[in-house]
Amino acid sequence: MPAKGKHRRPKSQGFARTIVVAGVGGAALALPLLGATGAHAATPAAAHSVVKTAPAAAKTYAVKGGDTLSKIAAAQNVSGGWKKLYSDNRSAVGDNPSLIHPGLKLTIGQKAAAPVTQASAPKAATGAGYTLPVQSASIGTAYKTAGSMWSSGYHTGVDFVVPTGTPIKAIAAGTVVSAGLDGAYGNEVVIQHADGKYSQYAHMSSLSVSSGQAVTVGQQLGLSGATGNVTGPHLHFEIRTTPNYGSDVDPAAYLRAHGVSL
Q1: What is the domain partition of the chain in residue ranges?
Q2: Looking at the domain 59-108, which fold is it?
Q3: What digits encode the pLDDT tens for the residues 65-80?
Q4: What's the pTM?
Q5: Quick one: CA torsion of 177, 180, 185, 190, rounded to 10 degrees?
Q6: pLDDT (tens digit per residue) in 158-178
Q7: By the 8 A CB rule, do 191 and 174 touch?
Q8: What angle do CA 171, 177, 182 make, to 5 degrees?
Q9: Considering only the top CATH level, what class is 138-257?
């Protein structure tokens, strides 16, 4: 028995038990068995694996009214901001990054694939984006202005006041369905667009496109002038549901719906 007042030394917590093995010359050697702590420490570093995170899948975003590329890039956390978003979607947006319109589909997360042209597709330029037919022009006669000078009793388009020789541009990609003289409209161009609507550009002094030609957004169609029934040089611009007179709709509202303000 141990002497009174003495305490046994507690067993080491580092080793749970020992084993006895025979050594050289019959001597017994006591070897400790590793406890849980020792076993954990002995785990090789190579046993740990590195998990790689896969890149986020691309997703499609439909442009809403009031959207800008900058606003979309911030809301969708696009690395590289609006410039990266525009670069990845330039084939869809067009040459002017500020001219995006509601309903336009943008790819977010990776570069958008180039569009594939089908052999059976109609001969028309593809791509989204809208622009004004003339730049830095004031508005003359507005749409639906009443007056006896017009056979319909009202103005069927909107007039842009520009001097003769001002470049006239296609508001969007499409196909020229007519180009030439048309009575009171003088020299005019009519373009069919992908949404089924038609844009008309009248009183031009010269034309630089012909019927059946595919055009892109912003492509020059000719120069403004004062041909036909006019009181001075300007561009008469219409949006129609058919290529013919009498199917007009509000051109200002149409352009606004596609992100372009007069």
Answers
A1: 59-108, 138-257
A2: Membrane-bound Lytic Murein Transglycosylase D; Chain A (3.10.350)
A3: 888 888 898 998 888 8
A4: 0.53
A5: 20
A6: 999 999 999 999 999 999 999
A7: yes
A8: 95
A9: mainly beta
